[in-house]
C-alpha cells in the first residue's frame, strides 16, 4: 500500500529529516518518492533500509554527479529520490553500517553547501526587509509592520540554524586538528 505524508523540513534540518525517514523505515514504511512538502512510502518489512540525504555540488544529472551516483549504486546504495540537488539514498541494513561521509573533510564540505543555502535565504530576507517593507509603508503602515515582523521572525529562524552549522563546522575542524 502506498501512503503520502506531507511534511516540511528546512535544508539545515537534514539530520532531523534523515532521522524521521529512518523512524518510518523502522515501522516498515519505505520511502519511494520525495517532492516539495511530500513523501511517498510503501509498506514493507520493518527495518530493512537505512536512509541518508546528501546535498550534491551540482544537479544529479550533471556529468560528475552521474558518475558519483553510479559509484554509489555499485556500492549497493540506491538513489530513491532527488529534489533539486538533494538526493535521498537508502541501503539495506543487512549490508552493515551506512554513512555517506567517510571523513571529517567530506562532512565539512557537505555542511558548507547547506550553509550557502542558509546564507542565500538570509540575503533574500534582508533584501525583502530593505526593499519590500519601505514600499509597503507608503500604502499601509500597519501592513508594513506586520510584514516586517514576519520577515524578521523568518530571518531569526534562518540565522539560528545557520549559526549551529557554523559551530558544527568549527567543531569538526577542531576534531580534525586533534586527529592530525
Describe the overall structure:
With 180 residues, the protein is of the alpha+beta class. It contains four helices and six strands; from the N terminus they run E-H-E-E-E-H-E-E-H-H. Strands 1-3-2 form a three-stranded antiparallel beta sheet. It has a three-stranded antiparallel beta sheet with strand order 4-6-5. A hairpin with a 2-residue loop joins strand 2 (29-35) and strand 3 (38-43). The model has no long low-confidence stretch (mean pLDDT 90).
Quickly describe the structure:
The chain is α+β, with helices and mostly antiparallel strands and 180 residues long. It has four helices and six strands, in the order βαβββαββαα.
Look at the helices and sheets and give the structural class: alpha+beta
How many helical stretches? Answer: 4
Strand adjacency order, main sheet: 1-3-2
Report the end-to-end length measured between terminal Cα atoms: 50 Å
Average of pLDDT: 90
- Radius of gyration, in Å, reads 20 Å
Low-confidence residue ranges: none
Q: Count the E strands.
A: 6
Order of helices and strands: EHEEEHEEHH
Relative helix content: 55-70%
Q: What summary fits the major beta sheet?
A: 3 strands, antiparallel
Strand fraction equals 15-25%
Outline type: globular
Question: Keywords, please?
Answer:
180 residues; alpha+beta; three-stranded antiparallel beta sheet; globular
Layout of helices and strands, plus pairs?
Layout: E1 2-6, H1 14-26, E2 29-35, E3 38-43, E4 49-55, H2 63-74, E5 78-83, E6 86-92, H3 104-139, H4 141-179
Antiparallel strand pairs: 1-3, 2-3, 4-6, 5-6
Amino acid at each position: 500500500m502506498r501512503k503520502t505524508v506531507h511534511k516540511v523540513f528546512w535544508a539545515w534540518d537534514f539530520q532531523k529529516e534523515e532521522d524521521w525517514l529512518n523512524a518510518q523505515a523502522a515501522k516498515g514504511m519505505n520511502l519511494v518518492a520525495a517532492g516539495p512538502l511530500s513523501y511517498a512510502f510503501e509498506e514493507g518489512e520493518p527495518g530493512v533500509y537505512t536512509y541518508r540525504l546528501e546535498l550534491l555540488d551540482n544537479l544529479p544529472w550533471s556529468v560528475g554527479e552521474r558518475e558519483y551516483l553510479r559509484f554509489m549504486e555499485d556500492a549497493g546504495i540506491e538513489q530513491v529520490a532527488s529534489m533539486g540537488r538533494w538526493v535521498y539514498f537508502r541501503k539495506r541494513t543487512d549490508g552493515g553500517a551506512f554513512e555517506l561521509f567517510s571523513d571529517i573533510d567530506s562532512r565539512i564540505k557537505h555542511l558548507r553547501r547547506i550553509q550557502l543555502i542558509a546564507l542565500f535565504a538570509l540575503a533574500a530576507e534582508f533584501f525583502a526587509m530593505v526593499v519590500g517593507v519601505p514600499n509597503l509603508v507608503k500604502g499601509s503602515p500597519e501592513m508594513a509592520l506586520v510584514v516586517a515582523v514576519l520577515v524578521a521572525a523568518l530571518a531569526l529562524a534562518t540565522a539560528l540554524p545557520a549559526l549551529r552549522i557554523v559551530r558544527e563546522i568549527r567543531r569538526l575542524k577542531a576534531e580534525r586538528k586533534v586527529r592530525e
